[in-house]
Amino acid sequence: MKGIGSRVTIGFLSIVVLLFASGVISLFELGNLSNDTETILSTSRRNLELAKDMLSCAHEHSQATIHIALFDDESQRDVCRRAMSDLEGKLAAARNEALDASRLDSLSVSVTRLREVSESYLFTPTLLTTDTLVVSKPIAINDSFAASGKKWYNEQYKVVYDDMVDQIQSFMTHIHSSLAPRAEQLNKNAYRSVAPVLISLVVMIAIVLMFYYFIRVYCVNPIVRTNQALSDFLTYRLPFNVKADLRDEFKELADNIEKLIGISRLKNS
Amino acid sequence: MRASVILRYVGSVMLCVSAFMLVSAVISYINNIDSGFYPLLLSALLTLTLGAFPMLFVPRATSISNKEGFSIVVGSWVLASVVGMFPYLIWGGEFTLINAWFESVSGFTATGATILNDIEQLPQGLLFYRTSTNWIGGVGVVMFALVILPSLGTSRMSLSNVELSSLARDNYRYRTQVIVRILLVVYVGLTVVTTLALKAAGVRWFDALNHAMSACATAGFSTKNASIAFYDNAIVEMILAGAMLISSIHFGLIYATFLGKKNNIFRSEVVRTYIVIVVISTLFIATSLYGADIFPTVWESLRYSFFQVVSLFTSTGYATADTNLWPPFAIVILIFVSIICACAGSTSGGIKIDRALIFCKILWARIRRQQHPNAVIRIRVDGVAQDSDLLNSVVVFIVAYLALIFMATFTNTLFGQDIMTAFTSSVACLGNVGPGFGEVGSMGNYAEIPAILKLQDSFLMLMGRLEIFGFIQLFFLKWWK
């Protein structure tokens, strides 16, 4: 490496490049952190919405089932089918978006059981041909129909329904509890995005201190010593002798001063 | 003392460390840019800048003094450990500031003690970097400095005064450039041969290379949580034991043996003593293991006792069994070999068998002198009479070594460690062995010990690597004048 100018330039440039690189890596890690945070929050929000929708569908299905089973309300059959279809749709969506789909297995089983239980009672011909029932009769007319429906609802439907609601609530709880390890992971990622800058700063401080030391030893001292030698020559007519290990431009400067002194001596003589 | 000259040559060692960081980053890149890539890349850049900066300004020194040589070696080790923390710190995980420092010092001093509970969670690039610190440390940062510094004239030897003990230096009959070539040929050659042998034994390439590097450095970092016990393979164990044994013998003697010279390992009294102790220790421990029903057959008792004796005697620290469960007799022998360790002029730590042999001879001479007060008794090693300065330095070193162990044990117990953990962790760290007994046993680690003790242990590792006095001198102001 020749020339003090290029050394100083390279010194400064290396500091700039290093700061830039650590900044870029920190930005990259921050970007990752931001994406991770956004993904976790949006997944969590979406799962909560799906769980809430599933509960609404389940509630709607339950209401419709009561109307059919107890009051033989034909208009609720479509509502019942639609609610079940919506419930299954939401479940499928939740399975697609879940990180661990196996956690929804038990809920899927509950929903399937609910469908089977409700369809076996509400949508099969046996209901219509039961000898004690006349399907089209108003509820007040046929008390045994209502009693049978109530019994079925309490003993079969409600057991499966409650289990499914429990599963949905468990899913909601899981969404919350799964945030803890993810938050911990985020914390680590946050550390990773800050660490490069912190370490680079420490290294920069070390480099700046070294830079100061080298500039002082290899730039400032030669100038001071050369100046001292020149002053001694001018003041006391001492021989021009720089007491330092000179290199590069400083050596050239000292040599040129010596030549100048030589020329002036020649002129004087 | 010229600080700028010291900075320049320490800087050249930083460049070597940065080159290994870059290689590790390339491994991370090949491994689908795993999580170790950016920490390694940035660390390589930071270390490169730190190392190259003094070279920009400081010219090559035509000569360096003995003091400067000492300072370069010690400074290289300490600063390599400091910059060696960067990849760990940036990566995070289990690496706090203290843990990263401990792991880095343990790597560069070829100790092989770890604070990691789950080594296998590290990305491959970082695993390779971790082992490469062992490899660099094994042969000594000094050797790299000697390779990089081709024009230091007669003062070259002063660089190796610290790293190679005075006994080892006396054994060398070559110029420094030849020493460098010997170290390179033996070290690189042995690593390559061990890697190929491990691969042939069924270990995958990455693990074979890592274990070969670590074994040849007699360091002990493994890529597996269960260390060598993971493989449960007698052939793998024998290959590694062979590599450890060879690496723990004076490199100059190995080289001379290969060249068919007269001064070879078969004629060396030190090597003979070393091998005899290995054999006797193995037999004693195997007998005690078989007698205590730890292993059902004689062959298994021999297999496990041989590997553990070689592992601890060479200051490597690999494990194939939980030695905490072994009988007290076996544990005492293992602690004894952890204190002594292998030959000078090798990659192992500890007191070294050379000094132990001379110490025994001094004791024997003392007894004989009691019987024959007027006798002139010379102490000889390999037929060469040793001068009194060397004999004094051996005794002083051993006393200082044992004193340090007891002081460290005292501090460890002060912070609540049980006596076994306190004593053996001091022995293991000062001797650059790695695992001890108790909490820091062969299947344990240093994760749970208090932070202040991790700091103490890391300083013990540095002192052990730099033969105690080389490190201590830096803390005296007069030294710097």
Q: How does the overall form of chain A come out from the CA principal axes?
A: rod-shaped
Structural class of chain A: mainly alpha
Q: What value does the average pLDDT of chain B take?
A: 87
Tally of strands of chain A = 0
Unreliable spans of chain A are 126-141
Radius of gyration of chain B over all CA atoms, rounded = 22 Å
Structural class of chain B: mainly alpha
Q: Fraction of residues of chain B in helices? A: 55-70%
List low-pLDDT spans of chain B. Answer: 144-167
Assembly classification: heterodimer
- Main beta sheet of chain B, described? 2 strands, antiparallel
Q: Treating each run of at least 4 consecutive H or I residues as one helix, how many helices of chain A?
A: 7
Chain pair with largest interface:
A-B, 29 and 24 residues
Please tell me about this protein's structure.
The complex is a heterodimer of chains A (269) and B (481). Chain A has helices at residues 4-71, 76-97, 105-122, 125-129, 143-177, 179-236, 248-268. Chain A is mostly helical. In chain A, helix 3 (105-122) runs antiparallel to helix 5 (143-177). Mean pLDDT of chain A is 80; it is low at 126-141. By secondary structure, chain B is an all-alpha fold. Helices cover 65% and strands 1% of the residues of chain B. Chain B has 21 helices and 2 strands. Chain B has helices at 3-30, 37-57, 66-91, 97-108, 124-139, 141-148, 160-163, 166-171, 176-200, 205-216, 234-247, 251-258, 269-291, 298-313, 328-340, 353-371, 388-414, 419-430, 451-465, 469-472, 477-480; strands spanning 380-381, 384-385. A two-stranded antiparallel sheet of chain B has the order 1-2. In chain B, strand 1 (380-381) and strand 2 form a beta hairpin. Residues 144-167 of chain B have low confidence and may be disordered. Chain A binds chain B through residues 1, 7, 10-11, 14-15, 18, 21-22, 25, 28-29, 188, 191-192, 195-196, 199-200, 203, 206-207, 210-211, 213-214, 217-218, 247, and chain B through 3-4, 7, 38-39, 41-42, 45-46, 49-50, 52-54, 56-59, 86, 89-93.
